[in-house]
Amino acid sequence: MKRKIIPTLLALALTASLAPTVLAAVPPTPCYPTSVSRSEDGAQIRKVYDLGPQDDPAGISRSDFQQEGFHYTLTDLLKQEFPEREERFHTETVTLDSKSKDMESVLALLPAQREFTTEDGLTGTLSLKLDTVQVDVAGYGSSTRQVSATRSYPSLAGQDTSYIPKEITDNGRTLELASIDWQTDNTANEDGYAVGDRFTAIATYTGSATSSYVKGYVVTAEYSGTVSRIALNKVRYVAIFEGTPLVPAEPNPTPEPSADVQEPAAPVRFHWGYVLVPLGVVAAIGGGTGVALFIKKRREGGYETEEDSQ
Fold first, then answer.
1. Does residue 24 form part of some domain?
2. Both 192 and 92 in a single domain?
3. Is residue 306 assigned to a domain?
4. Total domains, the chain
């Protein structure tokens, strides 16, 4: 079991050690020039690269190259940042509290113009849009207070509470009897003593009243206008290549023959006369021999010519 585990651990350790090297070997994304210019004499070439914030300048080619009879080498790489103005139309909604819903009081809380900065950093002066001003109730609260009312009950025969109502209704609220104040309306003289025979009851009733009220108001309004900012969204790189002319290769000179070296003999030309003349001689000899043999055969055969008979 140990023999299998050790090679596996070694392989994992080797893979982990090589991983950063593999990641570091990934080449950067190549950048392409937006313009290329060449001097009149061809001694210099300028390549312009306009890169954004996400572009890596390592992708700019720095290698030597040859073009139109020159060998070019990078001598300088210039960097120039170009600020760009970014602007757009923006609407901002504001919300604030007000104790009153009176429009004059509300407008006093809203200036005609305000400076705003957006979440992405654009700033500008925005103007109030009056047609967007709106006032809403922020909420309601309630309060409870003690209320009281009095009732008078005259000409009562006695100070008997049974004559007095225990509850009354006042402004829609139910009140309960809290206290009674008795007053004598008429007195009679009995045995030299003044005795009251008619009474008035002043009854006091109490209770609680709950009322609601507006806690406040919420004002909303819109401001609109143009916001802008200066951003460094483009960086220009200028790669300067200096060129040196390429020297054309000179042809190898033909070596002159040495005095000790003999010049090769001129080629022998073939003459058909050397063949035709011998062939003509052979043909003539052959023809004469043939004639002689013919005459000999005739003589042997008994035939003679006119010259032979004479």
1. no
2. no
3. no
4. 2
**pTM of model > 0.70:** no
Using CA atoms in the order 271, 277, 278, 279, what is the torsion angle rounded to 10 degrees? 100
Answer left, alpha or beta for residue 260, where phi above 0 means left and psi between -120 and 50 means alpha: alpha
Phi, psi angles (nearest 5°) of residue 4: -80, -35
pLDDT tens-digit map of 38-62: 999 999 999 999 998 888 999 999 9
Cα–Cα distance between 167 and 163 in angstroms, integer? 12
The residue range of the domain holding 197 is 142-214
Query: Sign (positive/negative) of CA torsion 134, 140, 146, 151?
Result: positive
The DSSP symbol for 57 reads G
CA 35 to chain centre: 24
Q: Which two tokens stand for residue 50?
A: 């306009």
Residues 163 and 120 in one domain: no
Across 25-43, b (16+ Cβ under 10 Å) vs e yields: eeeeeebebeeeebeeeee
Contacts of 48 (CB under 8 A, 6+ apart): 33, 34, 35, 36, 37, 236, 237, 238
What is the gyration radius of the CA atoms in the chain, in angstroms? 67
